[in-house]
Amino acid sequence: MSPSTAVVWTPDFLSYQLSDDHPLNPVRLDLTMRLAGELGVLDEIKTLVPDPASDDELMRVHAPSYLTAVKSAPEVPFGVGHGLGTEDNPIFFGMHEASALVAGGSLLAAQTIAEGRADRAVNIAGGLHHAMRDRAAGFCVYNDCSVAIAWLLAQGYERIAYVDVDVHHGDGVQASFYDDPRVLTISVHQHPLTLWPGTGWPGEYGSGDGAGYAVNVPLPPGTGDAGWLRAFHAVVPSLLDSFRPQVLVTECGADTHSEDPLANLELSIDGQREIYRTLRDLAERTAGGKWLALGGGGYSLFRVVPRSWTHLLATVLDRDVAPERPLPADWVAHTAKLTGQPLPVAMTDGQAVSYEPWTEGADRVDIAVLDVRRAVFPLHGLDPDDPRD
């Protein structure tokens, strides 16, 4: 285990519960921490407990009128607009406090890295990447990813890379920094023609001084481990090598899994574990080991998210869990009481993870690969048609 790794956690994160039957159920966080604990991933780890982000910290990325709306929404019977009170973002009591706490968690993770107290930090409750400057969207009230990045910029950081591996486009973070060349945002997601929010095309590559610093890799429905990794490796490492970020921020949504009920990619737990290991390697290679890892989406609450994010925690902590490791009996017994679903027996889906490196035209994901490489690679001095770049 790296001695300079921080885990941000408080049971109060579970208060971010949009409604009793909402897909974004905080039970997934509780089950992840229980599983990681029972597997020994968190042994001797003293978790950092955050304070809620202040209004000033939130207003680096959100409009003051929006904060007012969030605070007042639970007391206003007919809603306040700003995307609040919808099916995706219902109003709940304590909404501002719960949302500010999640943002405070990601902010604390960023501060811990910036102050030299850790090289890596993880907040699995974070990753609420859809919230916009003046509205809630996609289960997200405050955009903790953007809040953390904006804070780092305010401290003088000049190159921050944000890599989003959630199945949905990281639209809120892209919007926050669309014209800012200090932030390279890369999102690998299901194709916008087939999944909300309908954005994240290769042609969305930034504006003004930020042209080339927004990168989108849209993948066709049904893409599995091999295709996903093929596309990722054809785009992301070259850009990170060129950009040389001072910090790598990642949004690690687990909703790319084949069992996720809200999307249509076909990754396995084994593929997701490989993604986290790849992100760790890229942080070491391109960002001096500085890695801020956040959670994100994931709606297979019992079978997928706890296993996937336990692998994430283990990867950040350099305590990698072997795929064949059995699930602890106590965890299975506890989780079985919460769901009628059959539960997996191990930390694997039994998939061998491999991929063929990118060459033009050999795979169905290559259309997306070529489109994004041709859109942004020349702006970074890279040859879009050369597989060596």
Automatic annotation (TrEMBL):
Residue stretches in coiled coil: none
Example GO molecular function: histone deacetylase activity
Domain of life: Bacteria
GO biological process: acetoin catabolic process; epigenetic regulation of gene expression
Pathway field: Ketone degradation; acetoin degradation
SUPFAM superfamilies noted in UniProt: Arginase/deacetylase
Pfam families: Hist_deacetyl (PF00850)
Stretch forming the signal peptide: none
Ranges for domain Histone deacetylase: 22-315
Keywords: Acetoin catabolism
Family under the similarity heading: Belongs to the histone deacetylase family.
Name of the protein in question: Acetoin utilization protein AcuC
